[in-house]
């Protein structure tokens, strides 16, 4: 999200190089983060502390890489266009990490093949899941999973490895619906474009694929962050929630966690 950091004088947005997500070289006081100003891509400066306290950020907000742009030896903020740390991350650390992911998968598959009882169905599911994982790893950056993400299931303990690979199974308690009512078209052109981008992003990351459709699910959008929209998929309207059993569980809050550390609580 951040595209530059300065101490006192703010440059105009036309002075900032968007392709580098960094500001031009400026005099910066690297010892006091609270006095720094963060320039945001969606307009206007704010303090670092205010930026950190934001809980709802836009989906397309850039990662504030400026927080990791300090020279390790002196802790000074590096604001040149070619940050040496970025060169190391992109050209050394990230390729090495991808190589380790591939090696861990190859070692796991060799071990499974050598064992008796490695069913053919598991072989097909493992290879299909591994292809998705390796594709996501190849498309990610140092900062985010730009092309989507999936658990590296072969690194999980054996009893729950299939859950990491295939996901949690659905507990169907009734007849699945056949909902055929089409989604109503959004009248506002701006919101329609934003919603299309949200759905397109899910398709792009492979979370939704081609196949036979027996029932539709409607959706609606609600405000999120500053000028963004959050997609809500309505499984109640189409009747899907009535056909699926979901276990209930308690959600601890701050008071519950504090009670745990008290010796008089049980």
What does this entry show, briefly?
The protein is built from 7 helices and 7 strands, in the order βββααααβαββαβα. The protein has about 270 residues and is of the alpha+beta class.
Looking at how many chains there are and whether they match, the oligomeric state comes to single chain
Structural class: alpha+beta
- Per DSSP, the total helix count is 7
The radius of gyration is 24 Å
**Percentage of residues assigned to helices:** 25-40%
Q: Describe the main β-sheet briefly.
A: 3 strands, antiparallel
SSE pattern, N- to C-terminal:
EEEHHHHEHEEHEH
* Mean pLDDT across every amino acid position: 77
What global shape is seen?
A: globular
Strands of the widest sheet, in order across it, are 1-2-3
Q: Could you give the count of β-strands?
A: 7
Show unreliable segments: 1-45
Head-to-tail CA distance between termini: 43 Å
What share of residues are in beta strands?
Answer: 5-15%
Please tell me about this protein's structure.
The chain is an alpha+beta fold and 266 residues long. It is 34% helix and 11% strand. It has seven helices and seven strands. The strands form three sheets. Strands 1-2-3 form a three-stranded antiparallel sheet. The chain has a two-stranded antiparallel ribbon with strand order 4-7. The longest helix is centred in the middle third of the chain and has 31 residues. It is globular. 11% of the residues are buried. The N terminus is likely disordered.
């Amino acid at each position: 999200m951040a595209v530059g950091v300065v101490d006192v004088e703010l440059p105009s947005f036309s002075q900032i190089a968007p392709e580098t997500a960094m500001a031009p070289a400026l005099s910066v006081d690297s010892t006091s983060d609270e006095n720094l100003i963060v320039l945001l891509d969606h307009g206007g400066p704010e303090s670092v502390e205010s930026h950190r306290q934001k809980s709802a950020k836009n989906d397309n907000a850039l990662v504030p890489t400026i927080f990791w742009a300090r020279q390790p030896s002196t802790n000074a903020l590096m604001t040149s266009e070619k940050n040496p740390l970025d060169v190391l991350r992109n050209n050394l650390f990230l390729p090495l990490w991808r190589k380790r992911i591939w090696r861990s998968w190859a070692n796991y598959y060799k071990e499974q093949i050598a064992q008796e009882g490695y069913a053919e169905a598991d072989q097909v599911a493992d290879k299909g899941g591994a292809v998705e994982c390796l594709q996501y790893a190849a498309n990610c950056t140092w900062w985010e999973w730009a092309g989507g993400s999936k658990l590296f299931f072969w690194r999980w303990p054996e009893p729950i490895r299939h859950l990491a690979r295939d996901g949690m199974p659905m507990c169907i308690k009734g007849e699945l619906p056949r909902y055929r009512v089409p989604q109503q078209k959004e009248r506002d052109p701006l919101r329609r474009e934003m919603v299309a981008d949200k759905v397109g992003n899910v398709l792009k990351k492979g979370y939704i694929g081609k196949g036979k459709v027996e029932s539709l699910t409607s959706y609606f959008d609600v405000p999120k962050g500053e000028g963004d929209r959050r997609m809500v998929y309505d499984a109640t309207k189409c009747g899907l929630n009535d056909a699926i059993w979901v276990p209930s569980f308690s959600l601890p809050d701050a008071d519950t966690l504090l009670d745990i550390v008290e010796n008089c609580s049980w």
